[in-house]
Amino acid sequence: MTNTASNEQITESRGGKAMHPKVQTAHFDLDKVILTWKTVLYNLFLITAGIIVFVIGMNSILIPNKLLGAGVSGVAIIIHYLFPPADVGITYLLLNIPLIFLGWFIISKRFMLYTIFGMAFFSLAAMVIKTPPVFLKDPILVAVFGGIVCGTGSGIVLRSLGSAGGVDILATYGNKKFGLRPGLTSFFVNAVVIMTGAYFFGLQIALYSLIYVFTSSKTLDAVLTGFNQRLSTIVISDKYREIADEIFKKVNRGATLLQAQGAYSGTPKEVIFTITTLTELPKLKNVIFNIDPEAFVVVNSTLEVIGKRHGTRKVY
After folding, report:
1. Domains of the chain: which residue ranges?
2. How confident is the model at residue 49 (pLDDT cuts 50, 70, 90)?
3. Winning range, highest mean pLDDT, from 32-41, 80-89, 100-109, 275-284
């Protein structure tokens, strides 16, 4: 008598009970897949919307008024001014090729996949979107207006996990590695582009364009921080417990008590440390000085605040 069994049919009798092999099945997490696709579509939407806003500003304000642009797009605009047949979109794409390798190997592949989409869409949008030109009598107003529109577009793009290429890659690299504000990095890089433009088109145009670059960088930072930058506040008061309790109740913010000591008196002190927003600062000061008019308060701007109730770390 011969016993045969396949892997699926083998059973083993132990103590009168049949033992069946466990069959492993793959688990398909539909919710996770949906969340991933929502994230991808959301980032593509930010990149697309930001680029459209930027290109409208570029084609309607910058180029018709002969202002110099910023970053790689600024170089593309300078080349277009010098050689009119050279399309800004195509030139921009070609100039970005070296930066693709920088982002791919140093920042992250996911970031660069989004960014490659941004580069391609920017080039297409620059060729397709032809909005009516905006002319203003005052060149300073033109520069400020252009900076607000283009800075808003750049900020929207950088709120995503990608970019539109160009200086955005350098700005993201500087923010990731050194904690530099993207607007600050862009400003210094763009200043070099403006000086190059000054050589070809004159100092007056370059100075107006510098106003555009400054306005654009400040608008970019404002869009990234949501116009509501966090502030760190230090409060020194003998009524620290009352003040901390009121911060919890009326300002709805957390607070930390730090152990300190007066340098002159040597008296131990409890120092309150809390994070608030610009809009909440007046309420916080009212709470503090209503309890202790003699309190010592220091308010500092923060570069970035990450943690509970204040935002999460951006992973590229």
Report:
1. 30-225, 230-301
2. very high
3. 80-89
Pairing of strands 296-301, 268-277: unpaired
Six token digits for residue 129 = 């979107």
Task: Tell me how many degrees the CA angle 42-45-48 measures, rounded to the nearest 5.
Answer: 155
What would the 3-class secondary structure string for 204-236 be? HHHHHHHHHHHHHHHHHHHHHHCCCCEEEEEEE
Instruction: Domain 230-301: state its class.
Output: alpha beta
For the CA atoms of the chain, what is the radius of gyration? 28
How far apart CA 252 and CA 205 sit, in angstroms, is: 49
* Token pair for 86: 């050279």
83 burial (CB, 10 Å; 0-12 / 13-18 / 19+) is exposed
What residues have CB less than 8 Å from 65, skipping those under 6 apart? 133, 134, 135, 136, 139, 142, 146
The SS3 of residue 311 is strand
Distances (CA, A) of 38 to 63, 111, 118, 151: 36, 16, 18, 26
Count CB-CB contacts under 10 A for residue 189: 19
Model pLDDT for residues 108-137, shown as the tens digit of each residue = 777 788 888 988 999 899 888 888 888 888
> Of 247, 230, 229, 228, nearest to 295 (Cα)?
247
- In a 13 Å sphere around the CA of 125, the CA atoms on its Cβ side amount to 23
Q: What is the mean pLDDT of the chain?
A: 80
Q: Is the pTM here over 0.70, yes or no?
A: no
Q: Are 173 and 51 in contact (CB under 8 A)?
A: no
Dihedral sign (CA 143, 149, 152, 158)? negative
